[in-house]
């Protein structure tokens, strides 16, 4: 009796809210000089401050403030002339001070928006996602649960704590509720996170690697009966660590809520955890009593009051907004909408642009990255950026083809060789002996051999049956191991048999 | 030698009359002789102190330039973190903890060649006015061992009065330097908030805490003030400005033409008769020295105590959350399948004393949703009003003065079960912390009715700490002339002392 | 008039992670009433137009440059740990949300 998605949207309107936590890529932590490098040995990147030792005091990382302001500016926010830090008090062993330094009633950036586009069967649709706030806070340490059957927290015998991640700067970006997405809620959620990620990447403020947790999304979902005013009870799904999961989590929660509501049951306001394997969410441990965070202004830190000059300096350093950049490149390169969508979907915009900037023709560059290279990437289950081929390699290959030094077929072998780690395009060409045979006497000899082998075919051509040339050209190509330029072979062959070269291959 | 001022000890070392090692040993001997009665120290670092002293002697004899307090011994309040030295803040929960780092104050002391003798007793986490709240037993007032030495820095001030050390470090959140100074007949200064780094000071109430110098003379306090003060990049609330010229002020002691404002609200009902008479007498001496005495009114001071007992508990409820048995300190109840949560609960139950729990619960309440505005929020507004009172008062006076405490030292145990009566001790010192300004207490005589020291408080605007030293030095000189010898020469001898 | 009941104080003790016996809770509830009555005086003058003060000295924009400085060694970091294993702090089982 599971509801279908169509059943859900026929009756209910979803209301979205998204909270994204972004780890900034500063060198040092939010409040101390410990390194933020990923993957260090346990507790080697800790000090009295980030271990919450008695007497230690925080001092704010200037770069973290600047990154937060840049994010706010890119999201069309107002930068608060006066903002400050607060303490969010609750006990948890991975949080050394048993309070998190965060921002509460006076965040650094407020009231912005991000316009997102999704590709639907009705064409491109635009949605404005309003941003409520952008605020700074610190990350917690990591715990390793030992013993018990599952290796998870429940049933563990004890836990081991590593505070290397404690105090890593985080920026939390909170949307207002996003109503009116209708059936597109899951896609809007995904597109919002994807475009937010692009902006953060273009700003250079974060590695935005969802799989490493440097970008994490909490999706709040509630349903209300279509036409009703009253918002429904929301659930907050955490642990969503891929774009696809954002979409799945929202869709899954919509169905789960609708099933409860249809049965006349209540949706419980709670935290839920997304299960990557099943695509379902699982209830977090429900708290018997509501947590009371007892926020108050952090007395160890002074207010942040960025003056206009500082903000303007940062505004001037803003890179081109990703949506403007997309529009510009699409126009410059004359890319049709569908192919533009495909390029974005494959995360290929940056790499194609780089290739073009190295001199390659945009259509050819796009053709290689979305064609042969994407095919190989798909087969090996990795992203194109993770392959061993670079924009420089592709630009060289495009140039060699344009010069006639490589045929498309040879070029594909070069691409394959570069990806296989055989070196630069030139090294692959040299080691595999991939040279276009341009020596005309050698070609003529091969043509003679082909004619000798297939005299009847040659005769047909002499009699004006030009399509028959394909068989002889094929034989010459085979003879030269594909290293000849087929167009030139055709020219020479037809001239040799006294026929005009009328049809381009 | 040990009854001299730090300044005189330093001069003796310069002249070669004594080495730092000898001086340090004399103080260690004194501690051995009398500290069983006084209990000023929680930990004495005999080896470390002698090693430091020998290093200073070596530097001096090799012709190296050393600071004015190099080689002088000092007692450090146990709330100040010192690398490798047991640091408890008077609490059982930190028993056995040896910090892996130095506080900025300790770093500066070490750089200046000041010899750290050990850690002094205090009310647990600096919460108290009598040092009775120490988990390690009370400190006794050397003037009368049945009486309290004040608090929370009772150990530091008592060590000065007992000649166990010529200098000490205190911290002052609501009077914890000045009130112990007052009741032990010593000098104590709370500098402007942000004047001395709080890095490595175990926090009680972050927006009120301030470390400062304790000594037996105003000049000694100034010399120590200059050693520990100054901007620190590790403390975001540290003031980035030159240190006020306190030593110069203490040396000149000039009050001619200065306007001294007597705070009407901090003198009168509730103040012991002998406290008032000594205070009035001091005002006359200052007038004779050329100051103009005026009266000022600070009507909102009557709300300061209430606001303090909301702000300080609120901040401490959060500051003390880190003591959870996970990373350092004692751990209780980690048996069988006990959870982290239950271990935290048990450890904090056992590890914290009654006053600390009382304040944590009060602060937790004042910050909780639904009560925040009425309590914490209102207290922060009172703070604004108190600051406005000070601004107005300083418009008509260069410094403000009052008795430091309403009474002389009370008996140990006398107020232990009446928190509100205990809190009243700090009525005259708390406004200074609320406004972040500087405050000094210096001895102004003995109350005739009980023969116990009375403290005279001087308050100066933020970053004008030198004014307290000018007035303090002037009053000290006038009193010395009147008495013929320092007040501490009248202290009863302790058993075991020569 | 009693402001705080035993269960109110029990809830505060839970938030503050301090185990308390019923006797302690009762005693504290009584004390809290007395103290709260005294500190509630702040409400007499705390009118809406007064701005609250959280920091006594008005300074702002105090930051540090984004420069890495030396961390503690793991030995120093763990030197006070009640229990440790493999350079990590060992703590009893955590009954809480899965992180
Ligand atoms: Mg957050
Ligand atoms: Zn650190």
Automatic annotation (TrEMBL), chain A:
Keyword DNA-binding: no
Catalysed reaction equations from the record: L-glutamyl-tRNA(Gln) + L-glutamine + ATP + H2O = L-glutaminyl-tRNA(Gln) + L-glutamate + ADP + phosphate + H(+)
Gene Ontology biological process: glutaminyl-tRNAGln biosynthesis via transamidation; translation
Domain Asn/Gln amidotransferase: 350-497
Xref: Pfam families: GatB_N (PF02934), GatB_Yqey (PF02637)
InterPro entries: Asn/Gln-tRNA_amidoTrfase_suB/E, Asn/Gln-tRNA_Trfase_suB/E_cat, Asn/Gln_amidotransferase, Asn/Gln_tRNA_amidoTrase-B-like, GatB, GatB_Yqey_C_2, Gln_synth/guanido_kin_cat_dom
Family indicated by similarity: Belongs to the GatB/GatE family. GatB subfamily.
UniProt protein name: Unannotated protein
Native organism: freshwater metagenome
Automatic annotation (TrEMBL), chain B:
NCBIfam families from the UniProt entry: gatA
Swiss-Prot/TrEMBL GO biological process terms: translation
Recorded family membership: Belongs to the amidase family. GatA subfamily.
Database matches in InterPro entries: Amidase, Amidase_CS, Amidase_dom, AS_sf, GatA
Keywords from the named record: ATP-binding, Ligase, Nucleotide-binding, Protein biosynthesis
Keyword match ATP-binding: yes
Taxonomy of the source species: unclassified sequences, metagenomes, ecological metagenomes
Keyword Cell wall biogenesis/degradation assigned: no
Coiled coil segments of this chain: none
Entry EC number(s): 6.3.5.7
A cellular component annotation (GO) from this entry: glutamyl-tRNA(Gln) amidotransferase complex
The Amidase domain, residue ranges: 23-467
Catalytic activity: L-glutamyl-tRNA(Gln) + L-glutamine + ATP + H2O = L-glutaminyl-tRNA(Gln) + L-glutamate + ADP + phosphate + H(+)
HAMAP family: GatA
GO terms of molecular function: ATP binding; glutaminyl-tRNA synthase (glutamine-hydrolyzing) activity
Gene3D superfamilies, per database record: Amidase signature (AS) domain
Protein name, entry field: glutaminyl-tRNA synthase (glutamine-hydrolyzing)
From TrEMBL, chain C:
Pfam families assigned: GatC (PF02686)
Region (Disordered) residue spans: 76-99
GO process terms (BP): glutaminyl-tRNAGln biosynthesis via transamidation; regulation of translational fidelity
Record-given protein name: Unannotated protein
Source organism per UniProt: freshwater metagenome
């Amino acid at each position: 009796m599971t509801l279908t998605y169509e059943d859900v949207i026929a009756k209910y309107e979803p209301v979205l809210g998204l909270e994204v936590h972004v780890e900034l890529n500063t060198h040092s932590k939010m409040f101390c000089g410990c390194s933020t490098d990923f993957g260090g040995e346990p507790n080697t990147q800790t000090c009295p401050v980030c271990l919450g030792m008695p007497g230690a005091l925080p001092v704010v990382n200037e770069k973290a403030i600047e990154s937060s302001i840049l994010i706010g500016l890119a999201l069309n926010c107002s930068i608060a002339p006066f903002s400050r830090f607060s303490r969010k008090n609750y006990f948890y062993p991975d949080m050394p001070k048993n309070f998190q330094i965060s921002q509460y009633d006076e965040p650094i950036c407020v009231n912005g928006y991000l316009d997102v586009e999704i590709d639907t069967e009705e064409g491109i649709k635009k949605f404005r996602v309003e941003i409520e706030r952008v605020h700074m806070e610190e990350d917690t340490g990591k715990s390793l649960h030992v013993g018990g059957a599952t290796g998870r927290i429940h049933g563990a015998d004890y836990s081991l704590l590593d505070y290397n991640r404690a105090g890593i700067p985080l920026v939390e970006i909170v949307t207002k509720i996003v109503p009116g997405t209708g059936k597109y809620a899951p896609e809007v959620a995904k597109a919002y996170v994807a475009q937010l990620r692009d902006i953060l990447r273009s700003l250079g403020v974060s590695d935005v690697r969802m799989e490493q947790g440097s970008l994490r999304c909490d999706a709040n979902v509630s349903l209300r009966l279509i036409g009703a005013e009253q918002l429904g009870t929301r659930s907050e799904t955490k642990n969503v660590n891929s774009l696809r999961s954002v979409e799945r989590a929202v869709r899954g929660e919509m169905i789960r809520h609708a099933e409860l509501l249809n049965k006349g049951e209540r949706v419980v306001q709670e935290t839920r955890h997304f299960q990557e394997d099943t695509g379902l969410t699982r209830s977090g441990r429900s708290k018997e009593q509501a947590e009371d965070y007892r926020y108050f202004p952090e007395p160890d830190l002074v207010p942040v009051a960025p003056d206009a000059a500082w903000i303007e300096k940062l505004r001037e350093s803003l890179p081109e907004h990703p949506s403007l950049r997309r529009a510009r490149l699409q126009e410059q390169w004359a890319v049709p909408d569908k192919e533009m969508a495909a390029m974005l979907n494959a995360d290929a915009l940056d790499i194609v642009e780089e290739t073009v900037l190295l001199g390659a023709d945009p259509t050819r560059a796009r053709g290689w990255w979305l064609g042969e290279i994407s095919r190989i990437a798909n087969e090996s289950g990795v992203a194109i950026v993770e392959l061993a081929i670079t924009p420089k390699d592709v630009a060289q290959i495009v140039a060699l083809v344009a010069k006639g030094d490589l045929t498309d077929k040879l070029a594909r072998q070069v691409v394959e060789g570069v990806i296989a780690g055989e070196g630069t395009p030139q090294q692959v060409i040299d080691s595999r002996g991939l040279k276009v045979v341009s020596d005309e006497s050698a070609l003529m000899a091969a043509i003679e051999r082909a004619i000798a082998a297939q005299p009847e075919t040659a005769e047909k051509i002499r009699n004006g049956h030009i399509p028959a040339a394909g068989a002889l050209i094929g034989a010459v190509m085979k003879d030269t191991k594909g290293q000849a330029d087929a167009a030139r072979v055709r020219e020479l062959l037809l001239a040799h048999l006294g026929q005009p070269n009328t049809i381009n291959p | 030698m040990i009854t001299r001022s730090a300044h005189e000890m330093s001069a003796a070392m310069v002249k070669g009359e004594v080495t730092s090692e000898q001086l340090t040993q004399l103080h260690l001997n004194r501690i051995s002789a009398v500290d069983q009665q006084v209990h000023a120290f929680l930990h004495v670092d005999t080896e470390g102190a002698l090693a430091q002293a020998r290093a200073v002697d070596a530097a001096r004899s090799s012709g190296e330039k050393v600071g004015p307090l190099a080689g002088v011994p000092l007692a450090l309040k146990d709330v100040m973190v010192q690398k490798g030295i047991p640091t408890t803040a008077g609490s059982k929960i930190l028993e056995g903890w040896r910090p892996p780092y130095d506080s900025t104050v300790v770093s500066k002391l070490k750089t200046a060649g000041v010899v750290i003798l050990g850690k002094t007793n205090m009310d647990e986490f600096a919460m108290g006015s009598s040092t009775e709240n120490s988990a390690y037993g009370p400190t006794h007032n050397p003037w009368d061992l049945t009486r309290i030495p004040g608090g929370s820095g009772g150990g530091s001030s008592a060590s000065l009065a007992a000649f166990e050390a010529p200098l000490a470090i205190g911290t002052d959140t609501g009077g914890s330097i000045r009130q112990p100074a007052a009741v032990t007949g010593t000098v104590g200064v709370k500098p402007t908030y942000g004047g001395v780094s709080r890095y490595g000071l175990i926090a009680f109430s972050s927006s009120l805490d301030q470390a400062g110098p304790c000594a037996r003379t105003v000049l000694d306090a100034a010399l120590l003030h200059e050693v520990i003060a100054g901007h620190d990049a590790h403390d975001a609330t540290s003031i980035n400005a030159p240190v006020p010229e306190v030593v110069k002020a203490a040396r000149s002691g000039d009050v001619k033409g200065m306007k001294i404002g007597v705070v009407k609200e901090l003198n009168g009902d509730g103040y012991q008769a002998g406290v008032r008479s000594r205070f009035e007498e001091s005002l006359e001496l200052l007038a004779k020295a050329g100051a103009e005495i005026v009266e000022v009114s600070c009507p909102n001071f009557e709300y300061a105590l209430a606001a303090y007992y909301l702000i300080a508990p609120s901040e401490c409820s959060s500051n003390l959350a880190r003591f959870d048995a996970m990373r350092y300190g004692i751990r209780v109840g980690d048996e069988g399948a006990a959870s982290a949560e239950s271990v935290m609960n048990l450890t904090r139950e056992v590890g914290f004393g009654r006053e600390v729990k009382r304040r944590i619960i009060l602060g937790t309440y004042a910050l909780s949703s639904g009560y925040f505005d009425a309590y914490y929020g209102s207290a922060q507004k009172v703070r604004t009003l108190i600051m406005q009172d000070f601004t107005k008062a300083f418009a008509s006076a260069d410094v403000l003065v009052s008795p430091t405490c309403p009474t002389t030292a009370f008996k140990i145990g006398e107020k232990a079960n009446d928190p509100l009566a205990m809190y009243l001790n700090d009525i005259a010192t708390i406004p200074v912390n609320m406004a972040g300004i500087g405050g000094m207490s210096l001895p102004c005589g003995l109350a005739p009715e009980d023969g116990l020291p009375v403290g005279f408080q001087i308050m100066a605007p933020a970053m004008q700490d030198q004014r307290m030293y000018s007035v303090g030095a002037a009053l000290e000189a006038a009193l010395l002339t009147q008495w013929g010898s320092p007040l501490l020469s009248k202290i009863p001898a302790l058993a075991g002392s020569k | 008039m009693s402001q705080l009941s035993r269960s109110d104080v029990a809830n505060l003790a839970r938030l503050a992670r301090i185990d308390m016996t019923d006797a302690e809770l009762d005693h504290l509830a009584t004390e809290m009433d007395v103290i709260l009555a005294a500190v509630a005086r702040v409400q007499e003058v705390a009118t809406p137009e007064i701005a609250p003060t959280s920091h006594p000295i008005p300074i702002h924009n105090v930051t540090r440059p984004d420069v890495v400085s030396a961390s503690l060694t793991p030995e120093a970091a763990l030197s006070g740990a009640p229990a440790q294993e493999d350079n990590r702090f060992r703590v009893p089982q955590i009954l809480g949300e899965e992180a």
